Amino acid sequence: MKKLTSGLILMLAASCGPAETRPAPGPGPTGDPAAATYSSVPPSQMEPGPLPKLPPAAPLTLIAGDLLHITVFRQKDLELEVRVPEGGLFAYPLIGDVAATGCTVKVVETDIRKRLEEKYLNRAGVTVTVKEYAPRSVYVMGGIQKPGGYEIHPNRRLTVLQLISTAGGYTDRAQKEYSQLIRRKANDERELIRFSAAEVERAVARGKVEADIELFPDDLVVIPSAARVVYVLGQVNKPGSFDLPADTRITVSMAV
């Protein structure tokens, strides 16, 4: 189900894509045309090959809003149910603040156990379970048919190509060669990853499924567009995007 962030208005005042253009990719160094384009061999003439193996899934990490249940074997006083706060730290009896955001359940268990055993318990059998997951979303904008936010299941994988497909695919002005991924890191820092969505498609077509980038919660995928585009997302009558002519000025109230 598609979820849009409330009241979010994104306005691009200039062209999303670079001014220069790149030549279409040609055959690779080996001269193999399949290195640049999809195979034109009819399916009936293609020999079946072994199924490709997916790389291991990224470990599930905690985010603000996850509801945790913490127990210590034979220590009823140390049982705690807590929702991870926005800052990522929660208070635990005896040891104080425990970091949760961006950590796996096992990391939180290990941290609590070690700190309890340092001063208070000989052996601490700590168990951390997630009773309720907070909503996790990824976002896509630019040369996409249905830009916006999309909720993902905590225990399922989502890749760049899957997100683009869910969002209706590319527009005819999408510049797939100049795609970007903006990812939130520790301490609220942001990482910019540049990639070619077109090259990802070609690699997957050759059986290299590991080339399709796996997404994490709060990831933002940007597919530049050759046109100037205004995005109006959130609690409005007609959320979506529309082209803005080069000689046109527009205000926030006009866009809404």
- Portion of residues within helices: 10-25%
Summarize the biggest pleated sheet.
Answer: 5 strands, mixed
What is the CATH C-level name of the largest domain?
A: Alpha Beta
Pattern of helices and strands: EEEEEHEEEHEEHEEEH
Quote the beta fraction: 25-35%
**Radius of gyration over all CA atoms, rounded:** 23 Å
Biggest β-sheet: strands ordered side by side in the sheet: 8-7-11-9-10
What is the CATH topology assignment of the largest domain?
Answer: Outer membrane lipoprotein wza fold like
CATH architecture of the largest domain: Roll
Number of strands: 13
Q: What is the number of domains? A: 2
Report how far the terminal alpha carbons are from each other.
24 Å
Structural class determined from secondary elements: alpha+beta
Count of discrete alpha- or pi-helical segments spanning 4 or more residues: 4
Name of the CATH superfamily of the largest domain: Outer membrane lipoprotein wza domain like
> Regions with pLDDT < 50 over 5+ consecutive residues?
1-46
Mean pLDDT over the residues: 79
Q: Can you tell me the overall shape?
A: elongated
